[in-house]
Amino acid sequence: MTTDSIPVRTPDARPGTAPKKTGKDTAPRGRNRALFRHPGAGRQHHAGPVAYILLGIAALFSLFPLYWTMVAASTDNTRVTQTPPPFLPGPHLLDNLGKAWQDAALGKAMLNSLIVAGVIALSTVLFATLAGFAFAKLRFKGRNVLLMLVIGTMLVPPQLGVVPLFMMMTELGWGQKLPAVIFPTLVSAVGVFFMRQYLTEALPDELIEAGRVDGAHSLRIFWSIVLPIARPPMAVLFMITFVHAWNDFFWPFIVLDMTNPTVPVALTQLSAGYVRDQSLIMAGALLGTLPLLAMFVVFGRQIVGGIMQGAVKG
Amino acid sequence: MELSTLNVMEWVGFDNYTALWEDERFWNALLNTITIGILSTVPQLLMALGLAHLLNYRLRGSTFFRVAALTPYATSVGAAALVFTMLFERDFGMINWMLGLVGIDNIDFENNKWAAQIAISTIVIWRWTGYNALLYLAAMQAIPRDRYEAAAIDGASRWQQFLKVTIPGIRATIVFTIVLSTIGATQLFGEPLIFGQGPNGITGGADNQYQTLGLLLYEEGWKNYQMGRAATVAWAMFLLLIVVFVVQRVVKRVLARRA
Predict the structure, then answer these.
(1) Closest CB from B135, B141, B166 relative to A311
(2) What is the distance between the alpha carbons of residues A163 and B175, in angstroms, rounded to a whole number?
(3) What residues form the membrane-spanning segments (chain A) (predicted)?
(4) Residue B114's closest CA among B27, B188, B196, B210?
(5) Alpha carbon A49 to chain centroid distance?
(6) ipTM value greater than 0.90
(7) H helices of B10-112, where?
(8) What does the domain layout of chain B look like in residue ranges?
(9) B189–A contact, CB cutoff 8 A
(10) Residue whose C-alpha is closest to residue B32's, from B254, B208, B154, B173
(11) In chain A, which residue's Cα lies nearest the Cα of B214?
C-alpha cells in the first residue's frame, strides 16, 4: 500500500479553492462544518423517488437490527421465541435491562470500557498530534524514514503480535488487567498519519517561524500554535478512536476474562449459554451498544464528516 | 518453539510449521477464511458503491441517511453478532420466518456450512457497508464537475458516466477499501465466535464448518495452550494477506496490459 492510496482529504479544500459550485450548495453549513467540506461539486442531480426509496430501504436495513434488538429486549422469552416474531415493543424493557445488567455483570464492563476507550482515545489524540506535528513541520534527520516506518506498521496484522504480546503482559503481571488492553494501543499509526496530513496543510509555516522569532521552543509552539489549529481534527480522531477502542474485541478477549471484562468481552458471555433467556440476551446487547448509539445521536454528523474526511480506521 | 506453558521454551525448528502444513484443521480454516472473506467483501463493496452513488444525489435529509448508514459501524461486534444469531435462529428466527412466507423451509443456519458462512458474512456486510459507502462518497464528491459535463456533452448516459467518470475517479479509494476489507477478512474472529454460541464458538461449529484462521489461532493458543502453534497460524494469516496482495497486483498488471 502506498501512501497516495489513502484518501485523506486535506483541509485546504475550502470553498474558495474548490471548483465552482452551483447556487444551492450541498456542502454542510454552520460554524463547525468547514472541516468537513469537500472539494469538487460532484454530481448535482436531484434525487428522484427511486433514489429515495432505495435509500429508505438501505436505512431500514441499517437500523432494523437495532430496532429489533430493542423490541426483543422489551418482550419476554416466550414471545421472542414464537413466530411470527414480534415487531412492536413489549412492556418489559426496563425489567430486562435491569436483569441483563446483573447477569452479564455489565456495570463493571461498562466502567472498564469507558476507562479503556477514554484513555486510549485521549492518549492517541495527544501522541498523534505531537507526532503529526513533528512529521508535518519539524525538520530532522531521518524524518521520512521514520514516517515510512510508522505507516509500515499499519500493514502488520495485530494477530502477528498477539502471542509475544500475551507473554509480555503475563510477564508484567498485567494478565486480566486493563493496562494490558490500554498500553499496546496508546497511539496508532493511522492517527499519526491523519494528524500529519491535516497539519501539513492547515498549519502555515509562517506561524511557526513567527513563534521561533519570538523565542518559543517546539513544545511552546505546539501548545500555543498547533493545538488551537488542530482542535477540529483532534475531536474527530478522539471520537473515532473511542468507537474503535470501545468495540475492539480480539485482544481484550484474549487478555481479559469474565471477572474483569470490557463490554464486547462481557457480551460473549450472553451467547455462551449462561443466560438462557433470549430477551435478556437482547437486553444485554442493547445495553452494550447504547453508549455508542447515544454518541452517534449527538455527534453522528461529526463522525460521518470525520470518516469522510480522512479514512481513519483501526 | 514448543510453548505449552509460558516459561518452558524449547527450540523445535520448523516442526510447528510442518505440523501446520499437515493439519487438516488448518486447511479447513484457511478455506473458510477465504470463502467467508469473498462472501462478505464482494457484496459489501458493491453495495457500498451503490449506496455512495445514491448518497451523492442532492438529498433532503442527507445527514440522516449518512448517519443511518454508519450506525451499524457503531455497534460492537458482540452486540451485532448476538442480534444476527437470533435473526438467523433455526426455529423462531425472523429470517426463517420470512423465508417461510415465500415457501422456503427453515434453514439450519448454524449447522449447514454454507448457510452459516452466509449468515456470518451478513454480519460483516451489515457492519461495514455504510462505512465503505462514506469513503466512496467522499471520493465521489471530489471528482470535478466538468468531467461529468464533458461526458454528458459526448452523449454519455448516466450509467456510462458512472462507469467512465465516477469509477475511475474514485479508483484510489476503491483500492484502499479493498485493502482494508481484505485485512479485516483475514482476521475475522468475533463474528464466527459469537455466532457459534458458546462452547462451539472457538471451533467454529460442531464440524469446524465456519472456523476461521482467527478462531484456530485462539483455539491453539488459549484452549490447547500451544502458543508456538498459535504463532504459526498468525504467520500463515500474514502470509495469506501478502499472497492476496501479490495476486491482486498481478491481476491488475495483466488487466492493464490487456487494456
Answers:
(1) B135
(2) 30
(3) 50-68, 109-133, 145-166, 178-199, 220-246, 280-299
(4) B210
(5) 33
(6) no
(7) 15-21, 24-55, 62-74, 77-87, 94-101
(8) 15-142+181-258
(9) yes
(10) B208
(11) A159
On chain A, the residues whose CB falls within 8 A of the CB of B70 are 296, 300, 303-304, 307
Q: Which of A190, A248, A307 to mutate to test the interface with B (most CBs of B within 10 A)?
A: A307
pLDDT digits (tens, 9 = 90+) for B184-217: 888 888 888 888 765 567 787 777 888 888 888 8
Torsion on CA atoms A245, A249, A250, A255, rounded to nearest 10: 80
Q: Chain B residues with CB inside 8 Å of A86's CB?
A: none
Residues 6+ apart with CB under 8 A from B214: A159, A250, B33, B187, B188, B189, B192, B237
Contact A272 B201 (CB under 8 A): yes
**CA distances to A9, A42, B135, B168 from A308, in Å:** 8, 14, 5, 18
- The 3-state secondary structure of A122-182 reads HHHHHHHHHHHHHHHHCCCCCHHHHHHHHHHHHHCCCHHHHHHHHHHHHHCCCCCCHHHHH
Residue B57 to residue B36: CA distance in whole angstroms: 32
Q: Cis (ω within 30 of 0) for the bond into A11?
A: no
Say if residue A167 is exposed, middle or buried (CB neighbours under 10 Å; 0-12, 13-18, 19+): middle
CA separation for the pair B167, B48 (Å, rounded) = 13
List the pLDDT tens digit at each of the 314 positions of chain A.
333 333 444 443 333 333 433 444 444 444 344 344 444 444 457 778 888 999 999 999 999 998 888 888 888 777 777 777 777 877 878 888 888 887 777 888 899 999 999 999 999 999 999 999 999 988 888 888 998 888 888 777 778 888 888 888 888 888 888 888 999 888 888 889 888 988 888 888 888 888 888 888 888 888 888 898 888 889 888 988 998 899 888 899 888 888 888 988 888 877 766 656 778 888 888 888 888 888 888 888 888 888 887 644 33
User: A273: which chain B residues are within 8 Å (Cβ-Cβ)?
Assistant: 197-199
C-alpha cell read off for B122? 451478513
Nearest beta carbon to residue A160 from set B60, B199, B238:
B238
Domain limits, chain A: 49-92, 106-309
- Specify the fold of A106-309: MetI-like fold (1.10.3720)
Please state, in angstroms and rounded to a whole number, the distance separating the CA atoms of residues A155 and A161.
Answer: 12
Chain A residues in contact with B173 by the CB 8 A cut-off are 7, 311
Q: Distance (Å, rounded) from C-alpha B23 to C-alpha B15?
A: 12
Q: Is B134 at the interface with chain A, CB within 8 A?
A: yes
* Contact (CB, 8 A) for B180 and B230: no
Task: Tell me the CATH number for domain B15-142+181-258.
Answer: 1.10.3720.10
The size of the A-B interface in CB pairs under 8 A is 276
Give the gap in angstroms from C-alpha A175 to the nearest C-alpha of chain B.
Answer: 13
Amino acid sitting at position A134:
A
Residue reference for cell 518452558? B8
**Contact, B228 vs B16, CB < 8 A?**
yes
Closest CA to B52 of A58, A92, A26: A58
Give the phi and the psi of residue A207 in degrees, each rounded to 5. -60, -40
**Which one, of A293, A189, A236, A190, lies nearest residue A36 by Cα?**
A236
